[in-house]
Amino acid sequence: MTKKPLLLKAIKLIVLSIIFATNAADAQEWKFAYQVRNNMTTALMSGEYSQANIYLTQKNDGYYFGLSSTSQCLRMRATKVEYTKEYLIITPTNRLQSFCDIDRFIIRLDGTGGAEEFYSKESWIPSSSIIGYQRKLNYLGGASIASLINDLKEKSNEAVLQAQHTATANPNSLNPVISQVAQEKKENSVATISETARSEQQRIAAALESQQKEQTRIAQETRLREQDRLLAEQKASDLKRLAEESNLKEQQRIALESQQKEQTRIAQETRLREQERSTQLNRIKELEAIAESAKLKDLELAKLKEELAITKLKKDNAVLATSTRKALVIGNDNYSSVTKLLNARHDANAVGKTLTEIGYKVVIKNDLNEKEMKATLRQFKNDIEGGDEVVIFYAGHGVQIGSTNYLLPTDIKGESEDQVRDDAIQLQRILDDMNEKKVKLTLAIIDACRDNPFPKAGRNMGSRGLAPTTAATGQMIIFSAGSGQQALDKLGPNDKNPNGLFTRMLLNEMKTPAIRVDSMIREVRRKVVEAAKSVGHDQVPSIYDQVVGDFYLNN
Fold first, then answer.
1. For 196-225, how does the pLDDT look when each residue is reduced to its tens digit (9 = 90+)?
2. Annotation: CATH topology of 324-545
């Protein structure tokens, strides 16, 4: 009873040694690349995949298996290496399983030496369904795949044949061992086939599920792309339509502007031609009239020369005679488009009355619009003779544009600097007219130093007051305040005087008899400065004096 178990154990060891014996040939090696996506692992972060090389080495004492990427997973003898239905099944040692979390590798092989599959926990995934958690095995080279397959098949056949031979030679002693080995091989084969079938089913199910997910994702992406395409086409169509409409409107605008410009040009040309035709007709009529009266012209010319000589003699005699004292007084309060004033007419009427009392021939005008103001100045110029003594008093709004001063009629608009220049009255033009008429004395008193009534009309306009000016020989110009200063109308809320500060001081001095004009004006300035300072205000009237000789307002 004791010898039989020992004999069985010896036979079993012999059979196992025969089954697992390896050829005495040189060692062979097969190498595979094991890859894992970077977003699913922290190992070897480079590129899309992290990679480690798998080595399977055949030696005399069996197959060795290991990974090249880690020092823990060294090459150690594999527990089991099998080939079943195109699959190479490598079971690592327990140490590799515990340290490297590898249960086993199942690699699909073919006889040509090429292999490529995707592995995920015992499931093979087709290369067309790479999504989610992926591991990838690629054959990198080494010994022939066919030699590996043949070697594994031969070892399997040798084990079976050895067992059969042993059983034939000693049926009684080897039969239990062979039966046990055959049974173990059968159980392993069934388990392997079952495991392979289950793995294949899992792979197919996972592949189908991945394929369905991929198809759903592709369908969703296709639908979204189609929606985006339709939206992009609609947007492009709308933009194109808007661009066409905008282009059409721009073309219509340009065409309308061109038409209007052409019409304006034609109208101007027509007007110019009509003016030229009218001028030519008038010239023809004049020439005809001249031709008809040519015989009378010689007699009339002689007569005219005689009359001109008489007129010139009378005019020269008038200049030599005693000069006439004349005055023009204007007060503008009631402005239509800018700030109305309260004292200008009172000041003008008071000054005009005083000048009349001291012997001046006075023209008083109030609230003159542009047309009336220009007509009044033109008429006053025509009434002046050489050698006259002239006083011009103006109370109302005035502005400076650049270095030029303007007096404003009541209908001034002030929409721009150019409009003010065209519609207002240039002070220097009035002074030039007096100089042209060769008057003996021109005393221009301008009480218009108030705030700019249209500060937004242009940047060249002064904010208040008038610009410094120059006087010609025989002229004295007085501004009620200095450049940039404001002339006061009242000395406070309790001031009941109807006249402005400058005018009331002027009226008092004008009535003083036997005082020269220059002395009188300087006294007015002194009193204005003192009164303005009494209420904390700076107002210093400006005087520009080029008078030659002694002149008196009140003789």
1. 777 777 888 888 888 889 889 999 999 999
2. Rossmann fold (3.40.50)
